[in-house]
Design a protein that fits this description.
It is globular, with a radius of gyration of 21 Å. Strands 1, 2, 3, 4, 5, 6, 12, 13, 14 and 15 form a 10-stranded mixed beta sheet that branches. It has a 3-stranded antiparallel beta sheet with strand order 8-7-9. Helix 3 packs parallel to helix 4 and helix 8 packs parallel to helix 9. With about 400 residues, it is an alpha/beta fold.
């Protein structure tokens, strides 16, 4: 009888181990599990006595032409944002008295002047900013450089978008790579083609990349929950797999800043009661924002050492498609903003700040430089919004 029980227990354990191993492979955890385990000691939620400033940025991979809709459908997707965003969310304010701030990473290959004119209206109202998104395949360094330079100038001159360096006036932009394939990161080499992408981004005015995390995609880097500098390694893809964390060493020569969002294993949500799910900062219809998720995002501790009270929380979404509209524009998002305000009222040490990608970059640079002032005073630390479109 005892042997039978032991065999049953052994069989159950083998099945559980097999299910867990399957889950690991499906999510490509082998690429980042060891760093995740190594960082476990620093991965903790802030205590009630700690001063907490949550810097909350939504990097929207905004694709009105997703799945090749008719022009009318694409136009309606943009109109939904232009109308519902200020109406449903514009009345909320953060700890600085500022409304929610959304960053639209608009795809180069989907350019439509009327879409960007509409989004520029949200920017002028102080609710949003627009940055650069790109899907490409089998590209060349020359082709990539030309696309980035042309769109950068077009967004600034035609629509008054992007940003400028405070000291030099040079145009700057943030970047998100389509299909997660930054620096030719896919194992099959698809959806990019350019190994030295970091160099080209930096040389064309990119101030930071906001693509990651990409898990469960195989493009995910071993570096997780980090703000770090990475430089191209000649002839090799995936140069951004590793780098130097902000505030923990001199940036490598010719490097680009990468701003990662939270990536954690969520044991509170399990498939079949066994396999934990991923928390990768994605906002979508099936997984809207919530205060419970915020506590996980804080545990990731994406920070700069000089400002342990600043928590950089970069989320991502595909907000143009209909499946995401309710989560990002409807009641789930309304409840989230209400919950943030309520939490701040009951916890005097908790402060939250809605920021764009540009403002998050400025705050990273300010913290890196040893800034001791407020969040509000550092929002335009290095880059300022471009607000001067040329006459058409």
């Amino acid at each position: 009888m005892m042997w039978t029980a032991l065999l049953v227990v052994g069989a159950v354990l083998c099945v559980a181990a097999g299910v867990l191993a399957w889950g690991l492979r499906q999510r490509h955890l082998e690429r980042w599990l060891l760093p995740y385990l190594a960082h476990a000691p620093r991965r903790r939620a802030p205590g009630s006595h700690e001063e907490v400033h949550v810097l909350l940025c939504i990097a929207d991979h905004y694709e009105p032409k997703f799945q090749n809709p008719t022009p009318e459908v694409a136009r309606a997707r943009v109109r939904r944002w232009v109308e519902d965003y200020p109406r449903n969310l514009g009345g909320f304010v953060d700890s600085d008295g500022r409304p929610p701030r959304h960053t639209f990473f608009y795809p180069i290959e989907e350019y439509e002047a009327e879409h960007l004119d509409a989004l520029a209206g949200l920017c002028a109202a102080g609710l949003a900013e627009v940055e650069v998104h790109l899907h490409h395949d089998d590209d060349t360094p020359e082709g990539l450089r030309q696309k980035l330079l042309e769109l950068k100038e077009l967004l600034a001159a035609r629509h008054g978008l992007l940003s400028r360096h405070r000291q030099t006036g040079e145009l700057a932009y943030a970047f998100v790579h389509g299909n997660w394939a930054l620096c030719n990161a896919r194992p099959d080499g698809r959806h990019c083609g350019v190994n030295n992408e970091l160099t080209i981004l930096r040389e064309t005015g990119c101030y930071a990349d906001f693509t990651l995390p990409s898990a469960p995609s195989p493009t995910q880097t071993p570096t997780i929950n980090s703000l770090y500098y990475a430089a191209d390694v000649p002839g090799r893809p995936r140069s951004h797999d590793r780098g130097v964390e902000v505030g923990r060493g001199a940036p490598p020569a010719g490097s680009l800043l990468l701003v990662q969002g939270p990536l954690l294993i969520d044991w509170g949500r399990r498939k079949w009661g066994l396999v934990p799910r991923l928390e990768n900062g994605c906002l979508q219809g099936s997984h809207p924002p919530s205060l419970n998720r915020l506590l996980l995002w804080l545990r990731a501790r994406v920070q700069v050492p000089a400002r342990p009270d600043w928590f950089f929380v970069k989320l991502h979404a595909h907000g143009a498609v209909e499946d995401s509209h309710e989560a990002l524009l409807g009641e789930p998002m309304v409840r989230f903003h209400r919950a943030l305000a309520e939490h701040a009222r009951h916890h005097p040490n908790f402060h939250y700040h809605y920021v764009t990608a540009r403002e998050m970059y400025n705050l990273v640079k300010a913290a890196e430089a040893g800034w001791t002032g407020s969040v509000a005073a550092a929002r335009d630390y290095e880059l300022v919004a471009n607000r001067e479109p040329a006459p058409v």
